[in-house]
Amino acid sequence: MNQDARRNLEDLLDREIEAARLLSTTLAAERGALTGTSPESVQEKAAEKIQLLDMLERLERERQAVCAQTGLDVSGNAGDANAPKAGGMVSERWRSLMELMAGCRAANEVNGYIIHVRQNQVRQLMDILRGTTPVTYGPQGKTFARALRALARA
């Protein structure tokens, strides 16, 4: 692989790493917003996350195009045994990117869990407001419905 193509690939990977770092920071801020009380903050962080994901997808497409043009295998999983392997610096950047993205995936899953819990809390509160009979558990672990008056009628 020529030096220009290698530098181009290294530059693309550096930009992907920077975007992944920003995404990691944004996901941490989103987690804080999800546990806070400001819906505007949640919307702001979600919008930032979407922009960063779009940027990462664009950079990924560029990187794949460079790899296709040069026949280079960055991941070390070449389908073609004759495909040239990436150099040490490129491989190191690739590993760093994969580690960052794995951390982002885990953080996003935690945020998704928080959203799911919050949705259930809101659903339960709405049921109470509507006077819907909630299902609760007795001392023996069996479920039973306890009638409640609707708060809206109280």
Topology:
Elements: H1 3-34, H2 39-70, H3 88-130, E1 135-137, E2 143-145
Antiparallel strand pairs: 1-2
Helix pairs in contact: 1-2, 1-3
What can you tell me about this protein's structure?
The structure is a single chain. The chain has 154 residues and is mostly helical. The protein has 3 helices and 2 strands, in the order αααββ. It has one domain (3-113): Methane Monooxygenase Hydroxylase, Chain G, domain 1 (Up-down Bundle). The protein has helices spanning 3-34, 39-70, 88-130; strands spanning 135-137, 143-145. The chain has a two-stranded antiparallel ribbon. Strand 1 and strand 2 (143-145) form a beta hairpin. The longest helix is centred in the C-terminal third of the chain and has 43 residues, at 88-130. The N and C termini lie far apart (76 Å).
- Per DSSP, what share of the residues sits in E-state strands of 2 or more residues? under 5%
CATH topology: Methane Monooxygenase Hydroxylase, Chain G, domain 1
Order of helices and strands: HHHEE
Question: What is the CATH class?
Answer: Mainly Alpha
Supply the number of helical segments.
3
Category from helices, strands and their pairing:
mainly alpha
Shape: elongated
Number of strand segments: 2
Biggest sheet details: 2 strands, antiparallel
**If you compute it from the alpha carbons, what radius of gyration comes out, rounded to the nearest whole angstrom?**
24 Å
Known CATH architecture? Up-down Bundle
